[in-house]
Amino acid sequence: MTTKTAIITGISGQDGAYLAALLYKKGYRIVGFVRSSGNTDLRGLDYLNIRDQVIIEECDLLDISQIIKLLSQYKPSEIYNLAAQSSVSLSFKQPIGTFHFNTISVYNLLEAIKLIDRNIKFYQASSSEMYGKVNSLPITEDSVLHPVSPYAISKASAHWTCIHYRESYNLFVCCGILFNHESYLRNPNFFVKKIIRESIKISRGELDKLLVGNIDISRDFGYAPLYVEGMYLMMQSDKAADYILCSGKSAKLRTIIEYIFQKLSIDKNRYQISNELYRPNDIEDIFGDSSKAKQLLSWDYSLGVEEMLDLLLAEELKNTHL
Ligand code: NAP
Question: What domain range includes position 256?
Fold first, then answer.
């Protein structure tokens, strides 16, 4: 049997590392695209012990000729497109750069597939943020998109680009519409990772207070190592489609802080609201329904938010040296 090749863009990110580890276990040859081979942080691959199992290639996803060259060279059967400017907060400061990269990179990848080999399967990292101003909950694959940040607008545009290529050119394109998912490898700028890291510092006397923005909003949080299994399952399905991956429940950010503080025996008032950390617009509450993925893909997910926080806290404590 010939080994299947999978390309992962955004291999240096949280999901890229966990997905690479999963695909390696499944026997794939993995090619990871990075924007700059010289200074990309690949500590996620090191942490999961798969750095040597991944072929790293520099590829500017805004340059279609580089993509065409690498697809011709590696002949992948699957491409997982995870590369994106992924921060909602940063997207308010860099709206044009966020929109430009998060949309044109997707066009370039899909055009390259159309030109090189229409049998290559394509996964796009869509986001629950696309739903934004919600009319009714839970969110399903049929809910109306109403993005409320430059990040969400870019992801909605890329999402519709994917559907267009699936419907117009019959390409195998799946969009995984993922709700927030966390892990030890999450970038420290993101809420849950920041709260856990900084709370540990407070508990060790290294930090006085946690500075936070609007913590009266709620989000549906899940566990990244289990979400990448859903990505893989989508690509093994006979029919390309879009699927929501979520936990099915939302938790208020304030409750998450209180839970971590209580676990670390930190006094309740050791956080401070900073108006500077508020966003110009935000989703108040959002949670999804992943019945479609559970029924059609047999995606298995049942972790509650507290169980997930316990896992993350334990891993962070294990890796935080005094
Ligand atoms: P992440 O940790 O922030 O990783 C993002 C990846 O994209 C990194 O490898 C980064 O490379 C790359 N990237 C960013 N800007 C780039 C650019 N201009 N050119 C080339 N590469 C660029 O994100 P993640 O949490 O793994 O998420 C993976 C994907 O899922 C993203 O598309 C994200 O938007 C989407 N998503 C994530 C969540 C979530 O909760 N995690 C939820 C829904 C959707 P560098 O190392 O070079 O910066």
Answer: 184-220+249-282+304-319
